[in-house]
Amino acid sequence: MENTSLCYIEKNGAYLMLHRIKKENDMNRDKWLGIGGHFEFGESPEECVTREIREETSLEATKLSYRGIVTFVYGDEGEYMHLFTCEDFEGTPCECNEGVLEWVPKSKMRELDMWEGDHIFLDLLEEKHPFFSLKLVYSADGKLASAVLDGRSIPLPYKVKRTPAAANTGNTDNGSMKSIDIYTDGSCRKNPGPGGWGAVLVYNGREVELSGGEADTTNNRMELTAVIEALSKLKSPCKVTLTTDSKYVCEGITKGWAASWKKKGWKKSDGKPALNPDLWDRLLELCSVHDVKFCWVKGHAGHPYNERCDAMAQEQSGRYL
Questions:
Q1: How far apart are the C-alpha atoms of 306 and 200, rounded to whole Å?
Q2: In which element (H, E) is residue 101 found?
Q3: 219-232 helix and 304-318 helix, angle to the nearest 10 degrees
Q4: Active site residue 90
Q5: Residue 276 in 3-state DSSP?
Q6: Is 245 a catalytic residue?
Q7: Where do the domains of the chain lie?
Q8: CA atoms within 13 A on the CB side of 246
Q9: pLDDT in tens, the chain (321 residues)
Q10: φ and ψ at 124, to 5 degrees?
């Protein structure tokens, strides 16, 4: 029996998931998994999972919880999988050579293509079940044949017990999320050159202004930065209506361009490199946490919030002249 590790990294009501689409002859091909892999000689479970997180995501885990052991049996093969959650980490996820990394809200986890048994231990994790031993036996066609938790059989087919997001965020559906209006704009003089961005967040009649700038940037980077900075201020998953005068930002998300570039290793359909991959990657991450509706308005056409954001962006870019 081999030993492997698996970790569900948590942030803002979402798990960092790996869509296994890059490796050939992968038994997990097209499946969505947490982060982990095989033990190296002499490693403890904590050492293995910490190394795997670093290698697959570039993140440094700073708070791990050892949650259980899953015994897998499939045909004449098997493994012991040591299951962890990670509540705190340092760094930003990088590109992974085994698949595509994506932050997935817990409320959307059940929509993913994953192994049937994964739903069982995901429920156990969300229920804060004490350290557990789970045995999962799969048939030759990949179907879950039996499941035993702490020595007791689980009836199959398994019925998901709860919606994970409800336990973690207090939200049972989008209707119970806070509704936020966000307005953004970016500006760059000379393009590239000194740039600035501005954003206004509106909730329950209260308004919050944000702004910033850079000495050497582009207009598109400032447009993206405005959106990212505004969404980053939200402390829990929200229903957001985001208004911008940038078609680059709107269509990059609504037409699926950014998601497609990411799956292709940040290449466009013509094979040329996609610009601003660092910002698009962060925006896709935030859009996986929040329910964001993008709205385009014509710039400099009298929209009060757009004009206000533009004024902040212009002021910030002027600081670098």
A1: 9
A2: strand 100-105
A3: 110
A4: no
A5: coil
A6: yes
A7: 2-169, 175-318
A8: 27
A9: 899 999 999 988 889 999 988 877 778 888 999 999 999 999 999 999 999 999 999 999 999 999 999 999 998 889 999 999 998 999 988 888 888 899 888 888 888 889 999 999 999 998 889 999 999 999 988 899 999 999 999 999 888 764 433 333 333 344 567 899 999 999 999 899 999 999 999 998 899 999 999 999 999 999 999 999 999 999 888 999 999 999 999 999 999 999 999 988 999 989 999 999 999 999 999 998 899 999 999 999 999 999 999 999 999 999 998
A10: -60, -40
Active site residue 186: yes
CATH 3.90.79.10, domain 2-169, yes or no: yes
Whether residue 185 lies in the annotated active site: yes
Where b means 16+ CB within 10 Å and e means fewer, 271-292 reads: eeebebbebbbbbbbbbbbbbb
CA neighbours closer than 13 Å in the CB half-sphere of residue 311: 9
Per the annotation, the verdict on 212 as an active-site residue is no
Provide the strand spans (E) within 132-282.
132-138, 144-149, 152-153, 178-188, 193-203, 206-217, 238-244
> Which overall architecture, per CATH, does domain 175-318 show?
2-Layer Sandwich (3.30)
State the Cα–Cα distance between residues 286 and 214, nearest whole angstrom: 22
Is the whole-model pTM more than 0.85? no
- List the catalytic residue out of 185, 214, 281, 285: 185
Cα→Cα distances 267→47, 258, 259, 272, 307, Å: 35, 10, 11, 6, 34
Of the candidates 214, 234, 235, which has an alpha carbon nearest to the alpha carbon of residue 279?
214
Catalytic residue among 13, 186, 213, 252: 186
HEC secondary structure over 28-97:
CCCCEECEEEECCCCCCHHHHHHHHHHHHHCCEEEEEEEEEEEEEEECCEEEEEEEEEEEEEECCCCCEC
User: Which one from 245, 252, 281, 285 is the annotated catalytic residue?
Assistant: 245
In whole angstroms, what is the distance from residue 128 CA to residue 142 CA?
Answer: 28
